[in-house]
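agent> fetching stored inputs for the iron/sulfur cluster docking request
agent> found them:
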Amino acid sequence: MKVALFVTCLVDLMRPSVGFAALRLLEAAGCEVVVPESQTCCGQPAFNSGDRRAAIALAQKTIAEFEGFDYLVAPSGSCPDQIRTEYPGLFLDDPDWRRRAEALAARTCELTQFLADVLKVSSVPGEFDGNVTYHDSCTGLRSLGIKRQPRQLLDKVRGLSVKEMPEAESCCGFGGTFAVKFGDISAAIAERKCVNLQAAAADAVVGGDLGCLINIEGKLRRMGDETTRVLHVAEVLAGTNGKLV
Amino acid sequence: MRSQAMFFQRRAGEALADPQLQKNFTGLRDKFVGMRARAVNAYERDFDELRDAGQAIRDRVLDNLDVWLELFEEKATQRGATVLWAKDGREICEQVVAIAQQHGAKKVIKSKSMLSEEAQLNVALTAAGIEPVETDLGEYILQLSGNEPPSHILAPAAHKNLDEVADLFAEKHGKPRKTEIPALTREAREALREHFLSADMGLSGGNFLIAETGSVALVTNEGNGRMVTTLPKVHVVITGIEKIVPTLEDFATLMRLLPRSATGQDISNYVSVCTGTKGADDSDGPEHTYFILVDNGRAGLVGSEFQPMLRCIRCGACMNHCPVYQSIGGHAYGWVYPGPMGSVLTSLYTGLENSLDLPHAATLCNQCGVVCPVRIPLPELLRKLREKQTERGLRPWSERLALSMWAWIAQRPGLYALATKIGVRYLNWLAGGADRIEVLGLAPGWTAGRDFPAPQGRTFKELYKQGQEKKT
Ligand code: SF4
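agent> prediction call returned; pasting tokens
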């Protein structure tokens, strides 16, 4: 099975280890993984900012790069949602592109969804000495239905246990450009998320979207919490205590 | 009401900085969210199927709104009511004042009507020498408190706590200060009773207009609606033209959705269906009934991509579940309706250019969309409003420039790789070896309230390429 890894622009820039962790997980599950070199961004920031033209241009670029593979997999809920849910609607007046968009949409997956539901993996390479609490990112949860999959996979990590936090499904306040445009509101929402996750008293908070994780980590540190680790689910599933060795 | 939505940022900031308000919001949020969740879980059948049915009823009406409105007018007229049409807030005020004058009314008792807020009706009535008295407890509190605007569509005084109300009553009623809720409501009831008995005209909103019977349905918890609609000899109903439902049966279906979504009740304390004027055999009821059916921007949405917004049954669930509303309350939104539905309605009814922040003041978390009883895709509508702002060139040039530069680069992989390579090094230089950046000049909004974690140091693309080269 030929799987193309969509790294996502945030992982590319901020935390490449998430990309390598995803790569290891897919390979460990027996996939032939390709990383299309010319990939950049799915266009969601433009789409959500109201710039439809830019969103269309980036969608066409992404479709052309990824349509030749069996699956597109990304360590994120929001980019696959952009492709699955929004791409087809960008080409309402263009049947040819619409068909291509729909074809790619049908083969696009978030990483844990792909591992748990498509590949149905029975084991993962990761080990973790401690407990974690899981933050459900909004788009993955409410648009793609990702809830059970990461927990199911985390259960397979040796040494790890999951402790649920209150209001795990509440927004962390990131919201892309919202976090910058309305920094004070965003930080207030993030604070509530952090208080909730601290209540779980876990060693690490784990999530599937780097945007949320950067937001949460930034807020935890500003609140003086230097001990709760903030990790991407791919890092925990693939590494030893969240680190690739 | 004149929109103050252009001051969103400042007023949101003020609300965040007010510890008392913040405490009030927390209590409110937990109450509303918890109550709805319990009611939905306890509902014996599938609540999502009920939401489908609710959406279908509303869509059926909106697809042929003119037909249903005509039927309503015919039926209501048959039952002795007078049906009037108002284009905007000014026409509402003119018509209400004219009705009051025609019947020699000096005092008008009101149950909650958001349209009266849209029209600033109290100001117009007062100017015409007619005394408006709000009888919904929340609205009454706000009226006493110097005509404050509501901050929530169900609980207009939601931003106030018990202590503040106790102080206000002691000051305005001139009676000893009370601190227990029952004592306070009793005091309000006593003050209002006098008004109920001496008013010449009653004015209400309407939760639904029922086309087949020409009736208005009122859903309340305080019983004041009953007084307003039955005691005075004149009853005026003001509603938006979109409030129509075809049949009583449809009304019953929507009534399964509304109280559960709004306050977590299986049914509200009072449900009144008022039809026409007092008949020969009726023991009570108004001698004159007027319906003022208001457009004020609604007709323009029919048939447009924003038509789904007209499905709204004003339950308030979207704001109760919105992380932004939960943090800043309702006043920052600047007009009559707050929260996600308010951001859409304010933009559409008072002008995109006057509410530039509202469609952007959302994380698009879709917490609103999944609780909306009539499945209004609120995040999608907010995003469409953002598109409209862009199309009309309403966004600040700096934002447009940044966005188009970024999009231009993202379409050129070589350039993009170079830009991110430089970007990552710049961020690391800012971090100065630490694992975080405390002040980010490019995004001060981010670092005002939290740190920005430092990137790992190289882009994925760089590292991946190195790895591939080593392999070969
Ligand atoms: S938009 Fe939906 S959730 Fe919000 S008030 Fe209207 S009906 Fe209720």
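agent> quick read of the result: Chain B touches chain A through 63 residues (CB under 8 Å).
agent> awaiting further instructions
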